[in-house]
């Protein structure tokens, strides 16, 4: 549900562009929806399209092009493992498999408690630190061998347990 307060946030983003280029705010509007709802639904895309006076498919193309926009509900911690060639050469696929085994879920799934979602990611631009992963599209983790993956999961679980 897109509220009037959310639309006011959209308007503040649109105001940053010339009136004839309001569609330039599409990524900002998608980010606002994701911040508020945790993911971007087709219904949200439709509201954004109407607000920005652009075709719904154009908004959907942006949502699906960038992996930072969740197209379904995800866990509190989204772990995006790079599986591009440099990371693959340094055990990126093995890191993804280790997370699947450790969490008991497959890539794209969320743990039953709603805490973790794991997914593969395209290049994260840190090839020298491979394999890498992003936590919630914000925190980059480098050189993620099995021991560091286990430490990450333990730390995130501990953070959940203290809440």
Distance between the termini: 27 Å
Our count of helices gives 7
Enumerate the strands of the largest sheet in spatial order, edge to edge or round the barrel: 2-1-3-4
Q: In what range is the share of β-strand residues?
A: 5-15%
Bin the helical content. Answer: 40-55%
Give the overall average pLDDT.
94
Number of strands: 4
Order of helical and strand elements? HHHHEHHEEEH
Low-confidence stretches: none
From the helix content, strand content and strand pairing, which structural class follows? Answer: alpha+beta
Backbone shape: elongated
Could you tell me the radius of gyration in angstroms? 18 Å
Give a quick account of the main beta sheet: strands, pairing sense, barrel closure: 4 strands, mixed
Layout of secondary structure:
Elements: H1 4-14, H2 26-37, H3 42-52, H4 56-65, E1 77-82, H5 85-89, H6 92-103, E2 116-121, E3 133-135, E4 139-141, H7 146-161
Parallel strand pairs: 1-2
Antiparallel strand pairs: 1-3, 3-4
Question: Can you characterise this structure?
Answer:
The relative contact order is 0.11. Helix 1 runs antiparallel to helix 2 (26-37), helix 2 packs antiparallel against helix 3 (42-52) and helix 3 (42-52) packs across helix 4. The chain starts with a helix and ends with a helix. Helix content is 47%, strand content 11%. A 4-stranded mixed beta sheet has the order 2-1-3-4, with helices on one face. With 163 residues, it is of the alpha+beta class.
How is this structure best summarized?
By secondary structure, the chain is of the alpha+beta class.
């Amino acid at each position: 549900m897109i509220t009037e307060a959310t639309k006011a946030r959209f308007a503040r983003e649109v105001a940053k562009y010339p009136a004839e280029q309001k569609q330039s705010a599409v990524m900002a509007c998608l980010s606002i929806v994701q911040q508020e709802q945790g993911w971007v639904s087709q219904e949200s895309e439709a509201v954004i399209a109407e607000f920005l006076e652009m075709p719904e498919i154009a908004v959907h193309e942006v949502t699906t092009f960038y992996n930072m926009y969740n197209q379904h509900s995800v866990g509190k911690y989204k772990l995006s493992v790079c599986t591009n060639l440099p990371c693959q050469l340094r055990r990126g696929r093995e890191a993804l498999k280790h997370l699947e085994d450790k969490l008991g879920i497959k890539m794209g799934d969320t743990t039953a408690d709603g805490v973790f979602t794991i997914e593969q990611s395209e290049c994260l631009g840190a090839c020298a630190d491979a394999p890498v992963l992003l936590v919630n599209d914000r925190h980059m983790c480098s050189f993620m061998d099995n021991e560091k993956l286990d430490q990450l999961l333990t730390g995130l679980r501990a953070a959940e347990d203290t809440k």
